[in-house]
Amino acid sequence: MIHDSARPCLSEALLDRCILSTLTHRASAPAIGVTETLWRGQKTVQEVLDRTDVLRAQTPQCFDYQLIVSAHQNFVGDATDDVSVARAEGHRVAIIPGCYDNIKITESSDFKWAEHNLRGAMKMRIGNGFDVHKFGPGNCVTLCGVLISHGSTLIGHSDADVGMHAITDAIYGALAKGDIGQHFPDSDPQWKGADSSIFLKHAVSLAHEFGYNIENIDCTIICEFPKISPHTTAMRQALADIMQLDLDRVSVKATTSEQLGFTGRGEGIAAAASAALVHT
Ligand code: MG
């Protein structure tokens, strides 16, 4: 099967038709009909061409291997495709119904169309997560995997990393596979004081198990104190390392709640996160 690399929107259905036809005919290639009226001319129309039986050739052009190798070895001259080479040897080439999406990218606008087409075929899932932990006596908090000195700590069954919990839940949410509480119940003493990277790693491996890669993560931490912005780069790096992602796929940002509500009164920290997963 000889395929033009400028045609990235090839479908599995077309490949199946190509294989089936070539098993019978030894040589076959896809083509589509011409729907527009065809003219010959330059500045003015000189002639309207008969479009009966006129087809636009596509690839993959498919052959019995020995047939096409020998045709190429014996071919002299120029050809624009492999069908011409096979025909020069006297081989009959069966026509398979092609596919309109299987365009040859030629003009710059074709890139846009192809990108749209390929993204449309993409299987994507989105999830969100939200978590809250309250402050208690202590001297540091763990947020998105980074230890930050603070006049109090976050209370929780695990290390209370509220940001990482929101991200973990966003991934579970995208997969429609419950939440942290279901996978790691706080009634289970083995998760007491646990490093939250265990939860995040589990969510990521579950995504991989179902054939998804994490496209990107976005987390917003909501609190008045501690100040988050000096730590966002370290947080992004810590999360990227745990999830084995490039840094530019991981975003961490922060906001206050303008001193309103429980976060505004400094009673705790909230975090919201989104995750986008793309099927591989
Ligand atoms: Mg939590």
Describe what this molecule looks like in 3D:
This protein is an alpha+beta fold and 280 residues long. It has two domains: 12-119, Spore Coat Polysaccharide Biosynthesis Protein SpsA, Chain A (Alpha-Beta Complex); 124-279, 2-C-methyl-D-erythritol 2,4-cyclodiphosphate synthase (60s Ribosomal Protein L30, Chain: A), CATH 3.30.1330. The protein is built from nine helices and 13 strands. The protein has helices at 12-25, 65-74, 82-88, 108-120, 162-175, 180-183, 197-209, 232-243, 261-264; strands spanning 27-33, 38-41, 45-49, 55-57, 62-63, 94-97, 124-137, 140-143, 146-149, 152-154, 212-222, 250-255, 268-279. It has a five-stranded mixed beta sheet with strand order 10-7-13-11-12. Helix 2 (65-74) crosses helix 3 (82-88) and helix 5 runs parallel beside helix 7 (197-209). The longest helix has 14 residues, at 12-25. It is elongated. It binds magnesium ion (MG).
In short:
By secondary structure, the chain is of the alpha+beta class. It is 32% helix and 28% strand.
Topology readout:
Layout: H1 12-25, E1 27-33, E2 38-41, E3 45-49, E4 55-57, E5 62-63, H2 65-74, H3 82-88, E6 94-97, H4 108-120, E7 124-137, E8 140-143, E9 146-149, E10 152-154, H5 162-175, H6 180-183, H7 197-209, E11 212-222, H8 232-243, E12 250-255, H9 261-264, E13 268-279
Parallel strand pairs: 1-6, 11-12
Antiparallel strand pairs: 1-4, 1-5, 2-3, 7-10, 7-13, 8-9, 11-13
